[in-house]
Amino acid sequence: MTLMKLLTLATCFASALITSPATLANDSTLTFANYRDIRDLNPHLYGGEIFAQNLLFEGLIHLGENGKLEPWLATNWSVSEDGKLYTFTLREGVTFSDGSPFNAEVVKQNFDALLDNGNRHTWLESIRLMLEVEETGKQSVRVVDNHTIEVEFANSYYPFLVELGVTRPFRFLSPKCFKEGTTKDGTLCYVGTGSYQLSSNTVDQQASFEQYANYWGEKPQIEKIVAKVIPDNQARLLALRSGDVDMVYGLQLITARAFKQFETDPRFNTILSEPVSTRMLILNSKSDNLNDTRVRQALSHLTNKAVIAERILLGLEKPADTLLARNVPYADIELTPYQYNVETAEQLLNAAGWTLDGKVRKKDGKPFEITLSYDSDKVVERTIAQYLQSEWSKLGLTLNLVGEEEQAHRDRLKHGEFDLSFNISWGTPYDPQSFLGGMRKPVYGDYAAQQGIPEKAQLDQHILDALEATNEQERQAHYSYVLETLHNQAIYIPLTYEQNRAIFNKKLEGVGFNPSQFEIPLQRMSIK
């Protein structure tokens, strides 16, 4: 850290000790801290900050509390009996913030842009099923009239309505922003039908959003939102204490220790969401030392989740027994958890041929050695990794640690270049359908990690069958097979169920959570 940065932090810290947080800059502006720039806000791609895209762009369907489907830019919809044809009635009188009308032609243009870039959306089964229709020479997305649109799939696909409600990629961009009729090569502007417009952005400093005066729906109470870029964790908290920002939001931006400190500060409010996703380790079944199911099961029995939850995460997350929590749709099935049991772990390792030779476990003269990779920006992952390294060494297992920046870490997972690594489920409302659906393709590390288990082909087929099933019992049977197989094969070690979190100035009201942990419901907030 440079001398100038140390002096700046020291000054902020001293100020925080002697002053209360300033009142909000003015009664119509909310300022909050983010750790990076808003980046590319093209709603049809995945590079931009979700909170910003959620302010600007809207979809056909809104996901309300507990993931309830609610009308948004579509006032109603229907699904054919065979589950292949969706018909939407569009809201009338809606305009983009550049004045362009929202209608069925615009919906089709946006959907066509997604299909034009279909290879980028391989995690979405809906895109594949639309492209199959297109390959027959028939249009998958059809304009019925100015305010009615049809979407046809090659097979039934029940998760489509939920996918329409998440922030990307099924959000609508003004046709004036398209570049040569599409969006895969970038956009000319970031204009949506949302209640806010992007008014300014100083890269790596701050972005400002102001209300769209002609917004079709109920206007939010806060007139202006400012997102300040503060990459350093400690600097974000100092800015909150001094009143430079009014809120820090998100479990990736707030450590458990920081949350506990602010929990007892009467000047601020803290809130926790219900469990939203599963924090886990993912084990590569193709790895030389992890290709035996008994070894993976042994590591599961060697992982004390209670210690991780209570001592490392300070009780802000609960121990996870299964890959998905039982409150996730289709995940309420009977599975026997891998309880922490050193004796059972030793028996499994011995049965797999990994026996103690002095203080080191060996097989055919080769010592047991694996590497755990993690995102170096996530302090909690490093802490958990160091704890596991210490604990597993007591049984003669060598665990090396590799921390790297986010994109390098993601690339390592996608290409299968790992023994084990940290991973999370996609969370509500993506679980189970999108999280499991992504396992069929090399989207993240799941596809690579499962290549060494004999049931991989059956797993993929059952996932596909679940996505296309129109009968609830059939769908449950397919999901049950997938979750039970992954559990028995110990491809994952569930650690805790993550809960979203926020710390904010007490003058701020209406702070809560959306079904997706990646969104911030800024439109619902107000200032006393």
* The CATH C-level class name of the largest domain: Alpha Beta
Number of domains: 3
CATH homologous superfamily of the largest domain?
Dipeptide-binding Protein, Domain 3
How many helices?
16
Mean pLDDT comes to 93
Question: Which structural class fits the helix and strand makeup?
Answer: alpha+beta
Which consecutive residue ranges, at least 5 long each, have pLDDT under 50?
A: 1-25
Q: Kindly identify the CATH topology of the largest domain.
A: Dipeptide-binding Protein, domain 3
Give the beta-strand count.
24
Give the key terms.
D-Maltodextrin-Binding Protein, domain 2, 3 domains, 24% strand, alpha+beta, 528 residues, four-stranded antiparallel beta sheet, disordered N terminus, globular, Dipeptide-binding Protein, domain 3
Task: Write structural notes for this entry.
- The protein has 528 residues and is an alpha+beta fold.
- The protein folds into 3 domains: 127 residues, 3-Layer(aba) Sandwich (D-Maltodextrin-Binding Protein, domain 2); 131 residues, Periplasmic binding protein-like II (D-Maltodextrin-Binding Protein, domain 2), CATH 3.40.190.10; 225 residues, Dipeptide-binding Protein, domain 3, CATH 3.10.105.
- It contains 16 helices and 24 strands.
- Strands 1, 10, 11, 12, 13, 14, 15, 19, 20, 21 and 22 form an 11-stranded mixed β-sheet that branches. A 4-stranded antiparallel β-sheet has the order 4-5-7-6. A 3-stranded antiparallel β-sheet has the order 16-17-18, with no helix packed on it.
- Strand 2 and strand 3 form a beta hairpin.
- The longest helix is centred in the last third of the chain and has 18 residues.
